[in-house]
Amino acid sequence: MADIKHILEADGGVARVTVDRALSELRAGRPVVIRSGRSHVIVIGVEALDEARAGMIARLSNRRARLLLPAPRLRRLGLDRARAGAIALPVIDLRRITALALEVGARVDAPVAALGKLDHAALELARLALILPAVVAAQVPARAIEGEGLIRVDAGAIEGYRAAGVQDLRIVGRAPVPLEGAPDTEFVVFRGGEGLRDQVAVVVGKPDFGGVVSVRLHSACLTGDLFGSLKCDCGDQLRHTARFMAENGGGVLLYLDQEGRGNGLSNKIRAYKLQAQGFDTYDADEVLGFDHDQRGFDYAAVMLKMLGVARVRVMTNNPLKIAALEEAGLEVVSDQRVIGRRTEQNIRYLAAKRDRAGHLIDIAEADDPSSAGGVSD
Question: Which end of the chain is more exposed for a tag (fewer CB within 10 A), N or C?
Answer without folding.
Answer: N
